[in-house]
Amino acid sequence: MPSYKLSYFSGRGLGEVSRQLFHISGTPFEDDRVSMEEWPKHKESTPFGQMPVLYVDDQPLPQSFAIARYLAKQFGFAGQSPFEVAWVDALADQYKDYYQEIKPFLMVAFGFAQGDKEKLAKEVAEPAIKKFFSILEKSAWDAGLHGHFHGYFVGDSLTWIDLLISDHIDVLEGHLSNPIADYPLVQEVRDKTISHPKLKQWLAKRPVSTM
């Protein structure tokens, strides 16, 4: 087995899905948490000048989604067929589009920018959530797989897109009231995902973070 080190800041952010993949697969790794004070001296040594970075036998891999896809394929959480893998990737790409739409609200909610949070919630967050979570609701129903709903967004097994969306919902709930109330199948996926025994163990002990 290769050695793994995941370098990221102390918050969940872009590193959390990969951390969860390590924990649910039972794969040992070094959870390297870099403080904001330490980051400048590490920045130049990273491939793209940003984190997270996954080190596999000391070989670096940047970009959060590239890391998550790599680990998911290594550990069996990428999809059970080439078509399922492609659907997971499609939803992940759609998430990126959605995140750019909701980002102005989140930046204010996280305290990284100035703005009227309530106004942004109504004018930015609510339309973005409606657009994206309507897509997720439909995907949870069929995912291009002939209408068979198994409690996951794609196929009949847990994938990294379930982890990504479930963690994002947790973030939204810290800033909005019942953000997925209109999406019962999304809620089912989220509930099933966080009930995974090894994930439950990690969620219970991980450092507290609002983002």
Task: List key phrases describing it.
four-stranded mixed sheet; globular; 211 residues; alpha+beta; Glutathione S-transferase Yfyf (Class Pi), Chain A, domain 2; Glutaredoxin; 2 domains
Number of strands: 4
Query: How many structural domains in the coordinates?
Result: 2
Shape: globular
Percent of residues in beta strands? 5-15%
Mean pLDDT: 94
Low-confidence parts lasting 5 or more residues at pLDDT below 50? none
What name does the CATH topology of the largest domain carry?
A: Glutathione S-transferase Yfyf (Class Pi), Chain A, domain 2
Structure commentary:
- This protein is α+β, with helices and mostly antiparallel strands.
- It has two domains: 4-76, Glutaredoxin; 82-195, Glutathione S-transferase Yfyf (Class Pi), Chain A, domain 2.
- The protein is 54% helix and 8% strand.
- It is built from eight helices and four strands, in the order βαβαββαααααα.
- It has helices spanning 16-25, 39-43, 64-75, 82-109, 117-141, 160-173, 184-194, 197-205, and strands at 4-8, 30-33, 53-56, 59-62.
- It has a four-stranded mixed β-sheet with strand order 2-1-3-4.
- A hairpin with a 2-residue loop joins strand 3 and strand 4 (59-62).
- The longest helix has 28 residues, at 82-109.
- The two termini are 31 Å apart.
- The mean pLDDT is 94.
